[in-house]
Amino acid sequence: MSVQWRAENTENSTDSLETHVRAILAALGEDPGREGLEKTPARVAAAWRFLTKGYGEDPDAIINGALFTEDYQEMIVEKDIDFYSLCEHHMLPFHGKAHVAYIPRRKIIGVSKLARLVDAYARRLQVQERLTNQIANTIMDRINPLGAAVVMEAEHMCMRMRGVQKQNSTIITSSLLGAFRTQEKTRAEFMNLIRGHRS
User: Which residues pair with 100 in a beta bridge?
Assistant: First the structure.
């Protein structure tokens, strides 16, 4: 979904969401007017606005506001970043941990911005594979490091609550760019650093 398309369709969108939620409740056989459900359309609309707020966030602005020149060319790793997203196929949650690393060339980024970057892409309708690539590619494009790496581990409710109903499955995706792809030692160091948290 383009930012322009979303901007052009946000007017009165909360009222529209409430109307559609009310219709869904009725289609499920519920009475949207009963006491327990009377305010549900408004609550659901507010929740969906929050869960998809990443559409209104600019990853470039997140990074560009916190770039600093520093003579440092060793690996920087931020691991165990909690994230929550929505599967675009069933609109059910998937959530887990993101591990993000880069090797600076001349610029470093404020550490909190890596977590904000993860959230900016996660708070959209997503697939985990694309989400992983978006984070890594943005770091490469905007910081111009020697390399960037992202590993994401997530539990998908679309697999646990419905469908195959596999309760203990975890999906792991990775995107390894620059030195993390071309240098085996660098890749191994990153994997060893993030492996410590796993059970």
Answer: 78, 150
If residue 100 lies in a helix (H) or strand (E), which one and from where to where? strand 93-103
Low-confidence ranges of the chain (pLDDT < 50): 1, 5, 7, 198-199
The angle subtended at Cα 41 by Cα 38 and Cα 43, nearest 5°, is 100
Which distant-in-sequence residues (6+ apart) come within 8 Å of 65 by Cβ?
113
Beta-ladder partners of 108: 68
CA end-to-end distance (rounded Å), the chain: 37
Torsion sign (Cα): 62, 67, 73, 77: negative
Which pTM was predicted? 0.88
List of residues 6+ apart from 180 with CB closer than 8 A: 101, 103, 147, 148, 149, 186, 187, 190
Closest-CA residue to 98 (of 110, 116, 71, 75):
116
